[in-house]
Amino acid sequence: MSDTTLFDVVLGFDMETDIGSYTPFYEGVQFGTPPILDVLDRHGVKATFYWTGHAAENNPDMVREVAARGHETGCHGLFHETLGDPIFPLPNNWPILSSEVEGRLEIATRIIEEVLGERPVSFRCPRLWGSTQVINTLEKLGYISDASFPLYFFGEPFVPYFPSNDDWTKPGGAKLLEIPNFCDLEMQSNDPYQRDRDQWPLFRTKSADVLMEKTTGFIDYVAARQHRPVVCFYLHPWEFYPMPQGLIDFGECSVKPLPFIVENCGPYAIGQFDRLCDLLKQAGGRFVTAGDLGREYLNQSN
């Protein structure tokens, strides 16, 4: 990566139940969020925290603490549910009915506004499973940025864009900025859904240095095509607090996440995130919230 390359960094934290949809607990939000905030404070950078309505309603003090520390409060849906088009199959995880999407987004937005006293303007779909209906609904609700685009699956666009109201994966005339979540665009994938190209969860299953190699490759790829790179990350508070390593029992059933899902959650993840922030700063990254990036792009387009 050239020393003169300029790039933006959007740090996004999806504030949800522990291990995504696989538990009803909020230990990550309660105990993983404070060390995240301490790392961000230490580096003097701002991030966007995407809250589900349920997470915000059940952790109002933490919502307000995150905002008080200067970070953006975004929305992550009502629950950790499939709002858009699923990319790969998951058991017992049917998409929300099309007729329900707008209502659930309205409720989630209202809950966060009531908890914080401020309406969110940035959004991210659970699992990055967005859709054209979602971006049209978000635009109607007054959102200005959406960071749902899974670049590992679609491959392009690889820079932020205003999507088409007819196809959210293509540029068009919407006034909502779509921010792709970066990935390795040059590796040969061995997965039918190309998940091995993705950034997550390399920072804790490998290291911050390994993830930074992927980041640098993406920055060079975009800069070589005469665009300003925007490196958008997605992380979760439960990754920063030790998660169960075996079966999670619910009486009538048990859930056992694959080892990589919960590997190195807790102190190792905190240390590697600290290291990642340092590496991004050394490389010249400009940290910006998703909402501020949306405003900048909108102003440039006018």
Could you characterize what this model shows?
The two termini are 32 Å apart. It is globular, with a radius of gyration of 18 Å. α8 packs parallel to α10. The protein has one domain: Glycoside hydrolase/deacetylase (TIM Barrel, Alpha-Beta Barrel), CATH 3.20.20. The model has no long low-confidence stretch (mean pLDDT 95). The relative contact order is 0.19. With 302 residues, the protein is α/β, with parallel strands linked by helices. The chain contains 11 helices and 10 strands.
- The rounded Rg comes to 18 Å
Given the helix and strand composition, which structural class is it? alpha/beta
- The CATH top-level class label: Alpha Beta
Report low-confidence residues grouped into runs of 5 or more.
Answer: none
Task: Please tell me the CATH architecture by its name.
Answer: Alpha-Beta Barrel
Tell me the CATH superfamily.
Glycoside hydrolase/deacetylase
Order of helices and strands, N to C?
A: EHEHHEHEHEHEHHEEEHHEH
Q: What is the terminal separation in angstroms? A: 32 Å
Tally the helices: what do you get?
A: 11
Sheet having the most strands: 5 strands, parallel
Oligomeric grouping of the chains: single chain
Coarse morphology? globular
Residue fraction in strands: 5-15%
Q: If you average the pLDDT, what whole number results?
A: 95
Using DSSP, what is the number of strands?
A: 10
Q: What percent of residues adopt helix (DSSP H or I)?
A: 25-40%
How many separate domains? 1
Look up the CATH topology: TIM Barrel
Protein name: NodB homology domain-containing protein
InterPro entries: Glyco_hydro/deAcase_b/a-brl, NODB_dom
Domain NodB homology: 7-171
Organism: Ravibacter arvi
